[in-house]
Every structure is written in C-alpha cells, then in structure tokens.
Amino acid sequence: MQEIQSELKNLIKNLYGLDFEPEVTPSPENIPADFSSNAPLKLAKELHNAPIEIAEELAEKATETENLKAFNLTVTAPGFLNFIASDEYLNTKIADLDQDFAKDISSDEYSGKTVICEFSDPNPFKVLHVGHLYTSIVGDSISKLYEYAGAKVIRANFGGDVGLHVAKTMYILMQKNPNELTIEDIAKCYVEGTAAYEEDEQAKQEITKLNKEIYKINSENLHDTALAKLYWQGRELSYAYFNDFYARIGLKFDKYYPESTVAGLGLKTVKEQLEKGVYELSDGAVIFDGEKYGLHTRVFINKEGVPTYEAKDVGLIFTKWNDYHFDKSIVITGNEQLEYMKVVLKSVEQYAKDLVEKTSHLTHGLVKLPGNVKMSSRKGNFLKAVDVLNLIDEALKSEYNSEDKTVALAATKYAFLKYKMGGNIVFDPNESVKMTGNSGPYLLYSAVRAKKILEKVGESSQDKNSAGELNDQERSLAKKILLYKDALNEALNEMAPHRLATYLYEVAQDFSRFYEACPVSGSEKTATRKKLVKVYLDVMTHGLNILGINTPEEM
C-alpha cells in the first residue's frame, strides 16, 4: 500500500498542486477491488468539485503513471478510488519481498539513532508480579520494533533499591534475621512491614528512621553494620532473582538503574531549579505546583530533605541522557502512573524541554484472571509473574500432555501482546494454549505447517500450466503477505505490538484457507505456490521474532 500511496500523492501534487497525504487501505468486502482510497472525498472541499469527478479524473490520469499501470482502477460512489492489482504485479512483489528477506528486511528509519526503552521496573526487596511480566513482554517487543527500524536500543530497568518499601521489609527482616535469606522471605516481610507501618505508630516511626539509615548506607556505601550487611544481601538476591526470571522469558536488560544511583542527581537538580522558581517550598517540603498547568501538585523533596519518587525520576531522566544522549526515550508503566508522570515531565519541561519532547510515556492496564478477582501486592494476595508461567505450563500439559517451553512461552507472550496496550486484560491460561483461534500456539502451528510443506516439496520445477495466474486463495494470501511492512511500520509508529499480532493472526487465517484449497506438492502450480509458502514462512518467523517468540522446527 505504501507504493500506491506514494504514487497517488505524486499524482495529486502534479494535477492539483497540493501536498496531500492520501490514505490507502485494503478494500472492504463489498468492493470488488484490492485496495481503496477515500482521497477524492477529502479533496472535494479544497478543490470545490464533486468527489466522484475527482475520483474519475485521478483514475484516468493514473493510467499514464508508470507505477500504477499494474492496477486496474475503478470508481465507486460517492468518490472512492479502487485499485485491482494484476497477477503479474502480485507475483513480482512477492518475489521482491523474498529478496528482501534474503538480504535484509530491516528499515533504516531510525538508523544511527539511539532509543532507550525503560520497562518492567521491579523494586528490589519485592517479588515480580504479573504486571512486571506484562510490561517486560510489551517493552521487549517495542524494543525489537525499533531495532527492526535500525535504531540502537538500550533496554533499561529502573527500580527502588531505597525507599519506604525497603525500610518496611528490613524492619521485619531484622527481627527474624533468617540464616538463609530467600526472595519469598523478602516478599512476606514486605507484607508484614506494610501492615506494621499502617497499624502501629511506633513501628511507623522506626520504619521512617530506618528509611533514612538505608539512604545513608547507599549514599556512603557502608557495609559494616548488621543492617548494612542484611541490606546488601537482600539487594544482591533481588537482582539475581530478576535476572533468572528475565532469562526464563528470553529477555536481557542492558542497564539497571537502581534509584540510589539517580537520587543524588535528582535531589541536586530539584534544588537548583528551586532557586530558579520552577519548584516551591511548602511547609518545609519542595513541591511542583502542577495546578498551574491543569495537573496536580506533588512533593519532590520531603520535609526530612529526602528525595521522593518524583525527584528520583528527574534524576533518572538526566542520568539516561548523560549516559546515552538518546534520540528517543520510552517509559512504560501501569496506568496508575499516568498523572504522576505528567507532573514529573511537566516540571522538567520548564528547564529541559528538549528531553521531555524526546520522551514518550506509555501505560498499560491491569492483568486479571477470569473472575475479576482484585489483587494487591501490598496485601500479599497478588499474582506473581512466575505464577503466570506455571499456569501456562500446567494448561499446556493438561491440554496436550506437552512440556514444550517454546510453545508455553509463545502462549504467554502472545496472550498479552494481542491486546491493545492501555486497557485491562483478562488472562485465561487455558485459552492461551489453544491450537485454534487467536493464540500463540496457533501461529506457531501455522508456521511449522509451512515448514513441513517446503520440506515435502523440496526443489520444485517451473509451473506446468497457468504460470503466473492466481486463484482467489492465492491472491488473498499474496495480498496479505504484501501488507507485512505496512503492519510493521504501523506497529512501530504507534509503538503498538498488538497491530503486528493482529496482522500475523489474519495472515495465518489466509494461509489456512490457502492450505485447504491449494495443494503445493504435485500441483501444476508448485513453483508459484511454493514461493507463496516460503515468503509466508519468512513473514511469520520474522514477525513472531519481533513479538519475542521463536519458531520451533516441530510441534
């Protein structure tokens, strides 16, 4: 469609002298065409002419355009321009795409540019929950989209190794002083510490004091006290646990940013901008008055002089810039951080507008199990990330008596990626492992089926009859395959992996219909059909890889 769009744009420029971006889409089912454009409808007001007349003029002039001669153009009321591709055109473009895969299908849109993508962001001294799994899967896929576009991508992970949650955990840990510390010990202590902080005033005071001591341990790199030893042991255990889990889902981060490493710069920056009037003093704390900008007011340095999450995020923005001088920074969090980040970014905009303009904040909703059960990490009744993987493993074994980790991981990742980011999703393990319907295993099965066809056909000869002519199923599959780059670019531009996931499911459906109606081996059109199957497999393999899914040899 990009080629048609480009040629139509040039045609409109030459005919009417207008810089106009025409939209070209696959034709609706009730239109007997391959692609359609509503450009005449949008041009009508500016040209003071009837849409149908503009469409007819464009159709007539298009026959004189070299790159549009491969299409039969028709016009439908009230002013749609329709393109019917010739079989020769489709075969040629399939061959071209085959060559692109053989060389390098990557785009160069972000060539030479650096993109830092920050996601997952678990806090040491707490366990990974399902939200961390969701953002890890989405963040990695968005990172892969930018790598496809030629960017150097830094996968970054920001976590709170200091703060009240650590103090709450350490308050209980010091009382229990376990001989062998485990991540489960830490998780239980956080829940108990939270309850103590909320219900016991004396405990609250002691935890507040611990919070300051832990900041000091970090800032001065202290290791000698019992508190310091327990703290560093817990932090090291947390990061080892994170790395083990990320390895299980095929993810590796390039950079960890513990809050302690950016808090100092955040504190310094906020104090400097306080003197310049960006931030204000309020009852001994330093705030940003977001209400001036239609937002809410937040504290950046508390009364004790300790930087809050807001100041740490300020420090993170400048630390990432100092480290990488990024062209684009992407931050992925849950929806609950949306208004918070608006305030942080609005404050930074007052003195570093260029960094804010380079930053995109994406948010996702909650992940729920069927039944809509509410869960809370604070209360300890949340769904852990590892629980999700185990649920998938159990469902796969129950349904197919299989323990295939590749299929299980595909089921998990696709179950999240097929949804548009932003809304809540219901994660159903049993539906996720189905070999039919919109699931990861279905897509893998389709790709493996294509592999088996190619293995069976082997080296094929030229078509015997009707060479170059395509039937309905062949045309449908060819057209869908040729939309792959459009789907990739749409997913990239919108930072929306679900666009690619939807495309892959749709092309897999077209392939299924082709498979049922068009035998490849022993056919009079073996070569033509083999080429379609080969490029389809390339599309599926490449697309699934961008979703973080590997294609197995067998299923």
Describe the structure.
The chain has 555 residues and is an alpha/beta fold. 55% of the residues lie in helices and 11% in strands. The strands form 4 sheets. It has a 5-stranded parallel β-sheet with strand order 7-6-5-11-12, sandwiched between helices. Strand 3 (71-76) and strand 4 (80-85) form a beta hairpin. The relative contact order is 0.10.
Task: Using the alpha-carbon principal axes, give the shape.
Answer: globular
User: What fraction of residues sit in β-strands?
Assistant: 5-15%
Enumerate the strands of the largest sheet in spatial order, edge to edge or round the barrel.
Answer: 7-6-5-11-12
> Radius of gyration, Cα only, in angstroms?
28 Å
Uncertain runs: 373-381
Q: What is the helix content?
A: 55-70%
Q: Please, what is the average pLDDT?
A: 92
| Strand segment tally | 14
Instruction: Assign the structural class, choosing from mainly alpha, mainly beta, alpha/beta, alpha+beta, or little secondary structure.
Output: alpha/beta
The termini sit apart by 34 Å
Biggest sheet, in brief?
Answer: 5 strands, parallel
Number of helices: 21
Write the layout of secondary structure elements.
Blueprint: H1 2-16, E1 24-26, E2 35-37, H2 39-47, H3 51-62, E3 71-76, E4 80-85, H4 87-103, E5 114-118, H5 130-148, E6 152-159, H6 164-176, H7 183-199, H8 201-219, H9 226-248, E7 255-258, H10 260-275, E8 280-282, E9 285-288, E10 298-301, H11 309-324, E11 328-334, H12 338-349, H13 353-357, E12 359-364, E13 367-368, H14 385-400, H15 405-417, E14 425-426, H16 429-432, H17 440-457, H18 472-481, H19 484-494, H20 497-517, H21 526-546
Parallel strand pairs: 5-6, 5-11, 6-7, 11-12, 13-14
Antiparallel strand pairs: 1-2, 2-4, 3-4, 8-9, 9-10
Helix pairs in contact: 2-3, 4-18, 4-21, 5-14, 6-7, 6-8, 7-8, 10-11, 11-12, 14-15, 17-21, 18-20, 18-21, 19-20, 20-21
